[in-house]
Design goal:
74% helix, mainly alpha, globular
């Protein structure tokens, strides 16, 4: 009772303080171009995402946590003025919720989600997903086989991370369910083959984003630079290697081990929070055929690639690589998914597996299935907007640019850690490397250290994005696996931290090696250093595996 009274007293005190700030400060900004809040580009500018992340991990309630983070960011931007905070939260042109939801790229992603939701509903209704699960069960006879198939499909769909997450999830869920792989493990495998694969795939929306981040006038060819960074992109490569190790050795640790043990006993979810219900395929649907799933998915892949190069000007005479580099990924995915949806309707009608009424019923069902990720994405975008209004990215960038020149060979690991922190706090990889790449290009105008440092930036951005509960890719992976979002984050974190620690050590080794190599760095040396990184990670994972076995035996 006493604690409850203290909580009420603290809440009233805070409210009274906000009322005082509202009375003492202006409720409108006279000149937005010159306005800066009291905490702009300071340590406090990182407070909103920190509040949201800590709350989400502790309360297991992601919507409220994001809203609290957004509200705290709006209050900090308004210097405590309630009127200005409310207007900022909803109507600020650079970071408000309405602005984020009126952005054409963001709306395109939401439409793409709806289209995929409808496609998944159609494939389930036609029995394609269940048929594929039954077909796969005759070819995949083990948990390792189901997990490896998921990983392999994720690597094959390298065009875009959003597309990857939802497609792999919808195709492989029936297979992993039948082999008693937990939804948390499925979500991890989806996430591990989304951004980490896209960031080392030359033909992807991520390659286009990296290429466009290289500053004009620097004399650096963005696409050539991207290709050279691939062997040094340690986190991405080590995440894929780690996934293979976990699959074929059957090793699990941290909270993922509990989820996997429960799955072996029949509980695929572990958590009480099941945002998609108990959607486990029981094998009773015998009407569908494997082609009812394979054909729409293949058309979706081809149509999305077509949509991307179309928006990049390929059919106007631009070469394929340039078209991918200049594509509008959001618009391309909408075009591709709409073509696939139209094809699926005609295909199912020709095969007489679905009536027009069934097709119409799948439209609201698909939309409802995507409400949760759409809501989380909208809140995450708004939180990122609030963080941007507070100048958090400039605070972190200034920390990096202020590094002493005497530590230049330690800069790869410093850049990696800064990128991890920035991507984790803001939930965006693309925003992170668009901020840090120009700084890196200024610090190292040319040479192998430029390549290594940009690779460290990309690697750290993917790592932070992979760990962050407010990252859109993490949200999509949860949606694709039909897994509780907070459970996905908490089970994935130990794996991501392990790969990140190995990557950080390898960037130290690479920086020291470059100090001795000087101008003699080459593709061969980068491949040797990559091999060293893989050996380091495998050694660490073997130690974890042996300790896990000893704990189990004890």
């Amino acid at each position: 009772m006493k604690n409850k009274n203290l909580s009420w007293f603290a809440a009233l005190l805070v409210f009274a303080l906000l009322l005082w700030c509202t009375a003492a400060t202006p409720g409108k900004i006279a000149d937005p171009s010159t306005y800066t809040c009291a905490v702009y580009s300071t340590l406090f500018s990182l407070l909103p995402p920190v509040i949201a992340i800590v709350l989400a991990l502790n309360t297991k309630e992601v919507y409220t946590s994001l809203l609290v983070g957004i509200a705290s960011g709006a209050l900090l931007y308004a210097n405590g003025n309630l009127e200005l905070a409310i207007n900022t939260l909803f109507f600020n042109e650079d970071g408000g919720m309405v602005a984020k939801l009126s952005d054409s790229s963001n709306v395109g992603i939401l439409i793409f989600l709806v289209m995929l939701g409808i496609l998944v509903a159609l494939m389930n209704k036609a029995g394609g997903s269940a048929a594929f699960g039954r077909w796969a069960s005759t070819h995949i006879h083990s948990r390792a086989g189901a997990q490896f198939s998921t990983l392999l499909l994720g690597v094959m769909i390298f065009v875009d991370d959003y597309f990857n997450c939802l497609t792999v999830g919808s195709v492989m869920r029936p297979v992993t369910d039948r082999q008693k792989v937990s939804r948390a493990k499925l979500a991890y495998l989806i996430d591990a083959t989304a951004a980490p694969v896209c960031i080392i795939a030359p033909v992807s929306s991520w390659a286009a984003a990296v290429t466009s981040s290289v500053p004009e006038g620097s004399g650096i060819n963005g696409f050539t630079m991207f290709l050279r960074t691939i062997p040094y992109n340690y986190y991405a490569v080590l995440t894929i290697v780690m996934s293979l190790f976990l699959i074929f050795t059957g090793t699990d640790f941290g909270s993922m081990k509990l989820n996997e043990d429960n799955a072996k006993n029949g509980d695929l979810f572990t958590t009480e929070d099941r945002p998609y219900g108990n959607d486990v395929d029981d094998g009773t649907d015998t009407c569908g055929h494997v082609a009812d799933l394979i054909a729409p998915v293949l058309v979706l892949i081809a149509a999305c690639i077509f949509g991307m190069i179309y928006t990049g000007g390929f059919f106007e005479g631009v070469d394929f690589v340039t078209a991918f580099a200049d594509c509008n990924a959001s618009a391309g995915l909408v075009l591709g998914s709409s073509i696939a949806l139209l094809f699926t309707f005609v295909f199912y009608r020709v095969r007489s597996v679905m009536t027009f009424q069934d097709f119409a019923a799948c439209i609201p069902e698909g939309f409802k299935a995507m409400v949760s990720p759409m809501l989380i994405l909208s809140l995450a975008w708004t939180l990122s907007g609030m963080t941007g209004l507070l100048g958090a990215k400039y605070y972190v960038a200034n920390l990096l640019s202020g590094s002493a020149s005497a530590l230049q060979y330690m800069l790869p690991v410093i850049i990696f850690l800064v990128a991890v922190f920035l991507a984790f706090a803001t939930g965006t990889s693309w925003g992170t490397f668009s901020i840090l790449i120009p700084i890196v290009c200024h610090a190292f105008p040319e040479g192998e250290m430029l390549v290594i440092s940009i690779a460290a930036c990309l690697s750290g951005a993917v790592c932070g994005d992979h760990c962050s509960p407010i990252s859109d890719t993490t949200i999509m992976a949860s949606a694709g696996a039909h897994c509780s979002h907070v459970n996905h984050v908490s089970t994935q974190l130990p794996y991501a931290i392990t790969a990140a620690s190995c990557a950080a050590v390898c960037y130290v080794i690479t920086g020291i090696a470059q100090a001795f190599l000087g101008a003699n760095g080459s593709l061969l040396t980068s491949l040797i250093l990559l091999a060293v990184a893989i050996v380091v990670e495998l050694a660490v994972l073997n130690v974890i595996r042996l300790r896990t076995k000893k704990t189990k035996q004890a």
